[in-house]
Amino acid sequence: MAYHKENTGGITSFLSAFLARLSPREREVVRSRYGLDGNAPQTLQAIGNRYRITRERVRQIEHGVLASLRAERHAFVGTFVKAALAELDRTGGVAHETAFWKAMQQTLKDKNPVTLFANAGAFLLELSGAATLHSDPTGAWHPFWHASHKARKRAEQFVVKLASALEKRKQEVLAEKQFDVIRAEVARALRIPETHAAHYVTLSHAFVESPFGEMGLASWAEVHPRTARDWAYLVLKREGKPMHFSAIAAAVGVHRPAKYTNPQTVHNELIKDSRFVLVGRGLYGLRESGLIPGTAREIISHVLRREGPLHAQDVVNRVREQRVLKDGTIFINLQNKKHFTCLPDGRYCLREA
Q: What is 18-56 written as a DSSP string?
């Protein structure tokens, strides 16, 4: 490839020669505006302050330099742009900024620091006008490059359709891990190749991966936990059995090491959230797993109402599926004649009102 033959020093070596004919101030304006020294690009105002000129004057200098450099139509720029468009075509006409520059650097075998390479590459694409960087001020999108307005709209349409489909089938996605299946369905409906659809997902902040590797919408607490109780829910759902609040806090700390999780805070949050059921001394489980809230007597009443008369040991067995209680505690509650009656055959039932 001409990129390698023309310039063994990579993109920055080319730019040094390419910009050499500019005046020192023109060269410094361009380097500062595009971060061609490896630093963050500077604003017109910051550069103007350094040279004691207006930001409008800096803009004029930049505009003039770009117009002059565009007229040269250098072969190196053409080769670079060709590679960039090929990479964009591979990902459906759009590309996540970070992934795009990583792929470009690998393709061109450029050894420059990644930030410097990305800044220099952005300068060449701006110079050519072949691709545009989309930076969304609302924060809904990651910065991404796109080759055309049509490609950008296609990606945006897919993201909107996928988010809507996921919201309608939330329980299916969470319970059966159907994110990839639904993504493929939406892609087929819009006649988008699966590889492109997978890439489009990476462009939007609407989709996230949970701490346990499951994809979903960022608005779902089950996927993107924010509070202690959200994290506790994820931990209990993954464990599939009741846990002591201190163990829950410890598990949350493993997955959220940057922030201390206070066990008492977890206990306080869980006891007032209807998603959780206290099943024993400090032990919590999820209501959605079939656990029933209430006291031992209330659980016995529920069991007898659901199954009819039962022998004492059967009652104990059913209640212990719901609570961590001693057999004696259950037997004592069962003897409460105000609520339960022992039939002649030894079975217990609810006392008639």
A: HTTTS-HHHHHHHHHHHTTTSSPPPPHHHHHHHHT--HH
Strands ordered across the beta sheet of 347-350: 310-311, 347-350, 340-342
Neighbouring-strand partners of residue 341: 349
- Torsion sign over Cα 129, 133, 135, 136: positive
Task: Enumerate the domain spans of the chain.
Answer: 1-132, 149-217, 228-289, 296-350
DSSP-assigned beta bridge partners for residue 283: 244, 280
70 neighbors 127 (Cβ within 8 angstroms): yes
Q: Is the pTM of this model over 0.85?
A: no
**Which pLDDT does position 353 carry in this prediction?**
57
6 confidence band (pLDDT: 50, 70, 90): very low
Give per-residue pLDDT as tens, 295-307.
899 999 999 999 9
Is the torsion defined by CA of 21, 22, 25, 27 positive or negative? negative
CATH number of 296-350: 1.10.10
Separation in Å, CA 90 to CA 163, 187, 204, 313? 23, 16, 18, 66
Bridge partners, residue 95, by sequence: 145
The residue behind tokens 């609810």 is 350
